[in-house]
Amino acid sequence: MPDGQLNLEELLADLGFDSPGAHQAALALLREEGLVSSRPKTFISRDKKPRVREMLQSRFLAHCADAECSRLGRERARSSGLAPVLAGRRAACQICQGANNRRAFARARQACVEHGITQWLIVGGSPNLRSDLAAYLAEAPELRIDVDEGRSGDSKSDRARARRVQAIAILSRSEINHKHTAVYTGEFKEKVILIPARGLEALFEGMERHARGAR
Fold this sequence. Notes:
Rossmann fold; four-stranded parallel beta sheet; 8 strands; alpha/beta; two-stranded antiparallel sheet
């Protein structure tokens, strides 16, 4: 490979355009914008990679073949004015990025926003789960989520938290004192959903069901 050059096909695959249809759509756009010539080309200048990435992300949304990712991808593309394209690898999917947690989060996020259930209190969960949850929430400023680690022991504070939110998700498999959660399951039981399984996927699925009205 020439110095300072990238293999064009590999570059497009790395950016998520690894199926034949997605590859051709990306190549047509790059030719239209003058980033590559109309002649068949194997390499592209390494310096053009940021511009190629920016151009493709401004025009396309890549999703994998999973039915839910396809549906979410088409809906997100339509609302954003982008063109949906099929990615060959799940890791290239802009919905799930190859992870079930991310797809479940995308579904929950969409349902919560569509149905106006955007203020949540999450009770319990391991430190790792809370850290991973914070990373997802950084991408979704429209969701206002408070987390109760179950350590306060201050029922007055817990009641104030519960009043501020629209829904409360209790991770029932957490190592959390049930006397603590009784504040929520008693006085605020109409807001409460119980998440019986561990992990973010179960939490996000529960949030989606609640937002859509199927508890």
